[in-house]
UniProtKB/TrEMBL annotation:
Residues 141-457 form the YcaO domain. It comes from Kribbella sindirgiensis. Residues 1-51 are annotated as: Disordered. Residues 1-13 have a biased composition (Basic residues). PROSITE patterns: YCAO (PS51664). This is YcaO domain-containing protein. Residues 36-51 have a biased composition (Basic and acidic residues). It holds the Pfam family YcaO.
Length: 457
């Protein structure tokens, strides 16, 4: 069975169930039928209220009722997994949402809105807006439910605010003088083109922690801070500015895991589309038999979207690239996901691909290249312009291992060990949590890891 398919009439029962599962009490559907409704109101597209204004995307059979919501101190200390459907978290999405909503005025979030209905696919995508942001003013979030997508957008915006504020007490010194406390090779970070970094150059540093040994170390402040505002500093950049590894969570451990999986994902997918490493393979979509990923695949195919899923995983962890294209929107949009749970990894890739497409549809991002809009005006083709097929084909999704562990901290150690095995250097975590906000935010740095692309955050 070929791995690349369009919306053929397959799995009729599964598809019908998937469509029914996306139906909500307001009468909407999570597929193209929803776009034909004539009674949608502008108020349906944006809401910052509590649960009830947006129902779950998947059926309650897949997404059970949320347990009682713990207080913030309990959230900070939690390391056991309370949610394991589409994501692994120590508390539910609504617990995180209530906490995030309380700090909107501090981080400058003026509104959070639902973009899902702007596209015919129906996968939940939300955005959070910070009009006075020093970097991106619009952040996107996606998920298998509106609850998850809404809180994802808010947390993305909160993460960026923390990176903009990364002015913690730091030291100014050279690599040579700091060598005794550096646990890694600074030159294996992502240097800017023509970087003038030398061993003797004195630069600001911020404190970090080796994830495996827990020893203290230092990371160049320029590598951590994100700020696009003009400054009086005319010196050339030493490092590539990136949000790679910037992550938040309900606990420091959860945020650290998120960051570790992101830097590992970008290393594993750095060559996808440019070469075909032996570990890369094309996934047979028919082998995705159940779980959140099956529902997401059916939604994409039902919207006449061409889909290619590439297996990029290795070393005991699942990692996928998902590419989507349609005749109605003839541009390839990619999504990526990495996790110890194969269903979570693929769901992340599929939802991110849908988010990338909706980002272009919404047109609110300042960092989108003009080519996204220029190229869709070219004559339509009946076939997607996929890159060359991977070496391996027809990889069965069910053959890809799920190796997740019972606790978040267990996954943190496993992910850090995988990175250390790939690079010979332990990853570093910089705690950016702001005391006034109280939501754990970290920046994970993986010296020696690749970074082939940037996500539309």
């Amino acid at each position: 069975m070929p791995a690349l398919r369009t919306c053929r009439r397959h799995r009729q029962t599964t598809r019908a169930v998937a469509h029914q599962q996306t139906r909500n009490p307001r009468g909407g559907l999570g597929c193209r039928q929803a776009r034909r409704r004539q009674d949608m109101r502008p108020s349906d597209l944006a809401d910052t209220g509590d649960r009830g204004s947006h129902e779950l995307f998947l059926s309650e059979a897949l997404v059970p009722d949320e347990p009682s919501i713990p207080s913030p101190p309990d959230i900070d200390r939690g390391t056991g997994k309370a949610v394991m459907l589409g994501t692994h978290r120590v508390v539910t999405a609504n617990a995180t949402w209530r906490r995030a909503r309380d700090v909107f005025s501090i981080v400058g979030i003026s509104r959070v809105g639902d973009l899902t209905m702007l596209d015919e696919i129906g996968i939940p995508v939300w955005q959070a807006v910070r009009p006075n942001a020093a970097t991106l003013s619009v952040s996107q979030g996606k998920g298998i439910s509106h609850d998850l997508a809404r809180v994802s957008a808010a947390m993305e915006a909160i993460e960026l605010w923390h990176a903009e504020q990364a002015r913690a007490p730091h030291v100014v010194d050279s690599i040579t003088d700091l060598q005794p406390v550096l646990t890694y090779n600074v030159r294996t970070l992502h240097l800017a083109g023509g970087s003038l970094l030398t061993e003797a150059l004195e630069i600001p540093w911020i404190e970090g922690e080796d994830v495996l040994t827990l020893s203290r170390t230092l990371v160049p402040l320029e590598y951590i801070v994100l700020n696009d505002e003009p400054s009086g500093d005319l010196s050339a950049p030493l490092f590539v500015q990136s949000s790679n590894g910037l992550a938040s969570g309900n606990s420091v451990a959860e945020a650290t895991l998120h960051g570790l999986l992101e830097v590992l994902e970008r290393d594993l997918t750095a060559t996808v589309g440019r070469s075909s490493p032996s570990y890369v393979g094309q996934v047979d979509l028919d082998s995705i038999e159940d779980g959140c990923s099956r529902v997401l695949v059916d939604l994409l195919l039902s919207a006449d979207v061409h889909l290619r899923v590439t297996d990029c995983g290795t070393d005991g962890i699942a990692c996928f690239s998902a590419s989507i294209w349609s005749v109605d929107f003839p541009f390839v949009f990619d999504g990526f996901g990495c996790h110890f749970d194969r269903d979570v990894a693929l769901a992340r890739a599929l939802t991110e691909a849908a988010q990338s497409r909706l980002t272009a549809v919404a047109g609110a991002r300042d960092d989108l290249p003009f080519s996204v809009y220029r190229d869709v005006q070219l004559p339509n083709s009946a076939h997607p312009p996929w890159p060359p097929a991977p070496v391996r084909s027809d990889v069965r999704f069910t053959d890809i291992a799920t190796t997740c562990r019972p606790g978040i901290e267990d996954d943190v150690r496993a992910a850090a060990s995988l990175i250390a095995a790939r690079t010979g250097q332990s990853p570093i975590v910089v705690d950016l949590t702001h005391p006034q906000v109280g939501i754990p935010v970290v920046r994970v740095v993986g010296p020696g890891l690749g970074m082939g692309r940037q996500r539309a955050a």
